[in-house]
Amino acid sequence: MDSPALGAVALLLAGFWHLGLTATNYNCDGALVSTLPSSAFTSSSDFFSTHSPSFAKLNRRDGAGGWSPLDSNEQQWLQVDLGDRVEIVGVATQGRYGSSDWVTSYTLMFSDTGRNWKQYRKDDTVWVFTGNSNADSVVHHKLLHSMKARFLRFIPLKWNVGGHIGLRVEVFGCSYKSDIADFDGRSSLLYRFNQKLMSTFKDVVSLKFKSMQEDGVLFHGEGQRGDYITLELQKGKLSLHINLGDSNLHFTNSHTSITLGSLLDDQHWHSVLIERFNKQVNFTVDKHTQHFRTKGDSDHLDIDYELSFGGIPVPGKPGTFQRKNFHGCIENLYYNGVNIIDLAKRRKPQIYTGNVTFSCSEPQIVPITFVSSSRSYLLLPGTPQIDGLSVSFQFRTWNKDGLLLSTELSENSGSLLVYLHGGRLTLLIQKMAEDPVEISEGCPDNFTDSQCLNPITAFQGCMRLIFIDNQPKDLILVQQGSLGNFSDLHIDLCDIKDRCLPNYCEHGGKCSQSWTTFYCDCNDTSYTGATCHNSIYEQSCEAYRHQGKTSDFFYIDSDGSGPLGPLRVFCNITEDKIWTAVQHNNTGLTRVQGAGPEKPYTMSFNYNSSSEQLEAVINSAEYCEQEAAYHCKKSRLLNTPNGIPFAWWVGRANEKHLYWGGSLPGIQQCACGLEESCLDMRYFCNCDADREEWTNDTGLLAFKDHLPVTQIVITDTNRSNSEAAWKIGPLRCYGDRQFWNAASFNTEASYLHFPTFHAEVSADISFFFKTTSLSGVFLENLGMKDFIRVEIRSPKEITFSIDVGNGPTEATVQSPTPLNDNQWHYVRAERNLKQTSLQVDNLPKKVLEAPAEGHFRLQLNSQLFVGGTASRQKGFLGCIRSLHLNGQKLDLEERAKMTPGVKPGCPGHCSSYGNLCHNGGKCVEKYNGYSCDCTGSAYEGPYCKEEVSALFEAGTSITYIFQEPYPVTKNTSTSSSAIYADAIMSKENIAFSFLTAHAPSLLLYINTYFHEYLAVILSKNGSLQVRYKLSKDGLLIFTIDSGNFANREMHRVKINREGRELIIQVCHGRSFALFPHSLTMDPEVSKANAYGFTGCMSSVWYNHIAPLKAALRHPSIAPVTVKGSLTESSCSSLTEADVNTATTIYSSSDPFGKTDEREPLTNAVRSDSAVIGGVIAVVIFIIFCIIAIMSRFLYQHKQAHRSSQTKEKEYPENLESSFKADTDLQNTVSECKREYFI
């Protein structure tokens, strides 16, 4: 037997409908139903003849007093035939007279033919009308958008719980007159001009159309020089092609094409409006408008002879392209105010009518919608055929997967499946048992798994024009229950929706969709989130600093989620001011010659950004500047005191400015003029003296409203020996006016109010807060029904509440610790069409998915309340700062200045951010934020995290001397007191990092007045030794033999001892470093010292003192002495060659021989002079000079030492013996912060 044949399956690209405009007739409010005959009313069913739809007129009491269906369910409907197309502006309903039957909510559908219905929508949502609350009261609704239709259906959704569906209706509107032309795919209208060439600077074209075809030209015009304009349907979308005045059409890029709309081949009316003025074009399809500018240089459109509507009748002209003619109806076609169809109907000579009729032929199509992805199916009977099977239908869907058709083939030949998989159409035939032949679209419940094999999912989408064995299937009979079977279908309606029109993916995100939702691809947009709403960059350099970033190039997004894109800047993150620098295309010194008034020299500056981006950066900063320098030799600048300037600059808004750097706006002077320091006091600029020698006028332009500099013009370098050179520096700003902008709310009744928050489809709110209260409202904005609110409901609970008309949605984040701890906490709430989310600090984000249907526009109309509510209940006590709404910054401080109960600013930043000051840095409170004081740290930088390191060559040393013990008596809490007390070796806190390729080396040595000492050395084999001698104890040696530490890698060492507990930490990587030295060493330490240390040291630290930092930063005031060559260098940037160069000085000698590194060295020791003045092995020498001290200080010193010895005797015997043992730490130090407890 031949293989069964599959009929044609036509894939439609989707169909969408749009609502008409509001009524243009001011008196369009007449009752349309009251005069209709009974035959105008039909329904899905009626309970009895006395409940028939003919009794459904408003206020009528005949029959049973209204319409009631046989069964009260959501499949029932009441239909009104208004006799002709009318404009509908309102409806009214009642229940059934004197009964308990009424409808509480309903929807509306309309149609021109009584088939292919369209749902009334508002904001792309099927609108649900509120019905009645009793049987006899009348509820009116005025439509936001009028409908043009002949047929209207009322679809009850809900009804009185104690009764049934009961309905009486009225429809309000007026007659609708229009001019219609019907095109059959071969016909067209030609509009011929009065002259040969029509050249226009302005064009307006408007029309409405309906079609079942996805392709076709609606109108076209072209000229001999290459001008053309074409509007055509392409795959169900409208494309506008336009080219203005370019004869070289194929060799230029002046062609402009814009595509708009979607699902336009659905046999519903769609409106089009094209408005062109010069290059500016507004293109509107239904309610969606796109504004664009045409390419090329011309402003006018030159059309030869004629415009064609409905197709291109005469191909072959220059620029003409082959396209399908339009097949469908066009209504109210106007070109530049001319009613084209009216001229054609009246057979005017300028119109050529090519086989066009003037009434719209309506194909009686009945589409169906498979609503559910699991329960929808349509079961249709088929006729057994031995010689084959023919099935055809058209379908459309957004889903890439879904079963379209399944059937059993005759004579046990198998089963046939047609389905979508990954967007591709697949046909599958398989063997199966004998069964009756049936054909289905979708998957009915009574089919077995094998019969309805679906490796994907059930179909969701629309179908129409279903033919089985070349016979059309009447789906109205299916709806009436007399043909086949179905479940979860919308019959006579294609309920597909293009969720990517408009595109709610922001910032250029690419939209894709399924039947139920849309998705946004945010790649390459610099934004993230469900709708590409959130910038991946911070809003300022201050925000990067707060993250602990160091100076570098960054992208900043000044308006966050707003329309402005990110801008690349350099953030100079220093301890005092955070500078933001924006470079332009010419920041160097540029020489100029030969420029005069008639031939001026001009230079425009490109900052690789838009003017709006630069203005946003400037406006958000506290201060901005640009350096302006003019070097001149016989070249005048401003021609002061009263002449016309020979040079000027252009700033923001293309405004010309006649003052120079260092002067003030409106004063035609240079800096020397204000300072009265010009070379010639008769002039206000040095260059205006017009001297033969080089001089200059240099200063800062710092008036923010005039920046940035966009152009400079010079006109006085064309005389003999005249020359100039100019320089405009980068735009530099500091200070974020918003990041620390805060307000303190002192009473629960206090609040700040701002204008209404407008965020219909996308909203984000972010701020910091701190409080000690149990609850309070941070922010609230109300509408008629909608609202938005962020509040702290309990010490551990933050809630974001929002209602867009579908009922309140609440996103709540629970914190494991209380949030009312008077610390700053961060809150970010966001709502878009896909999600509602809430983020608190770094806790897991709470995300709620938005419903696929329903209201989605947030309509607010009250003032925005910050720190309270409109009812003045549940106000917030505490501080709020850095409040942003959709990227816009709210100035809390300025509003707080004029509001009782609220104070600008909020102290106490260090309580939250003091931990950001590292390595002994101290947090310093400021009005706007905080800073880290690194004076007492071995590190520097904004957070005391930048290492201070130096490269030591052979013979280099630093001596740090503690000479003055008097601070102990003046202030026992000072760091000097701690240092002096450490002279008796009660405890040490030492840290250092080192990088070397040389061993042996002495790394650390400390001794005291009592001949106690601590030494850290690298042995010959590269192992690390810590050597202690405390009081009368013998020498204690601790060896960390975990590899060679002289391996050209950075090593971090920390040593902490208090009493008899010693902790040593060693790890690889950049860290701390300290190297003390004493005048009195044991022989082994002296030997290591004699061979010197060469390498790199970083961030040296000893009991609150940073000797290396003092030597590098304050050599003239700190008690330091530097010998040899000390070079500041980043240890991490040193190459292996650098280390080898510095560390091969002793590679030829081996004075240590084969001595056991764990025993005291026995070789001869060099003389003291060699230790002090020769090759110095120690990077840092800390010498405790305890001399010339009064006897009572010495007595106190000895007493402290004796007390220490007494306490040592109190330790347990096992600890004493273990501490005195010569301990060998063989554990491998393979990871950071491994600790050795001894």
UniProtKB/TrEMBL annotation:
<feature type="transmembrane region" description="Helical">
    <location>
        <begin position="1170"/>
        <end position="1195"/>
    </location>
</feature>
<dbReference type="Pfam" id="PF02210">
    <property type="entry name" value="Laminin_G_2"/>
</dbReference>
<feature type="signal peptide">
    <location>
        <begin position="1"/>
        <end position="22"/>
    </location>
</feature>
<dbReference type="InterPro" id="IPR000742">
    <property type="entry name" value="EGF"/>
</dbReference>
<dbReference type="InterPro" id="IPR050372">
    <property type="entry name" value="Neurexin-related_CASP"/>
</dbReference>
<keyword id="KW-1133">Transmembrane helix</keyword>
<comment type="similarity">
    <text>Belongs to the neurexin family.</text>
</comment>
<feature type="domain" description="Fibrinogen C-terminal">
    <location>
        <begin position="532"/>
        <end position="584"/>
    </location>
</feature>
<dbReference type="Pfam" id="PF00754">
    <property type="entry name" value="F5_F8_type_C"/>
</dbReference>
<dbReference type="GO" id="GO:0016020">
    <property type="term" value="C:membrane"/>
</dbReference>
<comment type="function">
    <text>May play a role in the correct development and proper functioning of the peripheral and central nervous system and be involved in cell adhesion and intercellular communication.</text>
</comment>
<keyword id="KW-0472">Membrane</keyword>
<dbReference type="InterPro" id="IPR000421">
    <property type="entry name" value="FA58C"/>
</dbReference>
<keyword id="KW-1015">Disulfide bond</keyword>
<dbReference type="InterPro" id="IPR036056">
    <property type="entry name" value="Fibrinogen-like_C"/>
</dbReference>
<keyword id="KW-0812">Transmembrane</keyword>
<dbReference type="InterPro" id="IPR013320">
    <property type="entry name" value="ConA-like_dom_sf"/>
</dbReference>
<feature type="domain" description="Laminin G">
    <location>
        <begin position="180"/>
        <end position="360"/>
    </location>
</feature>
<keyword id="KW-0245">EGF-like domain</keyword>
<keyword id="KW-0732">Signal</keyword>
<dbReference type="InterPro" id="IPR001791">
    <property type="entry name" value="Laminin_G"/>
</dbReference>
<feature type="domain" description="Laminin G">
    <location>
        <begin position="967"/>
        <end position="1131"/>
    </location>
</feature>
<feature type="domain" description="Laminin G">
    <location>
        <begin position="741"/>
        <end position="906"/>
    </location>
</feature>
<feature type="domain" description="EGF-like">
    <location>
        <begin position="907"/>
        <end position="945"/>
    </location>
</feature>
<feature type="disulfide bond">
    <location>
        <begin position="879"/>
        <end position="906"/>
    </location>
</feature>
<feature type="domain" description="EGF-like">
    <location>
        <begin position="496"/>
        <end position="533"/>
    </location>
</feature>
<protein>
    <submittedName>
        <fullName>Contactin associated protein family member 5</fullName>
    </submittedName>
</protein>
<feature type="domain" description="F5/8 type C">
    <location>
        <begin position="23"/>
        <end position="174"/>
    </location>
</feature>
<dbReference type="InterPro" id="IPR008979">
    <property type="entry name" value="Galactose-bd-like_sf"/>
</dbReference>
<dbReference type="InterPro" id="IPR002181">
    <property type="entry name" value="Fibrinogen_a/b/g_C_dom"/>
</dbReference>
<keyword id="KW-0677">Repeat</keyword>
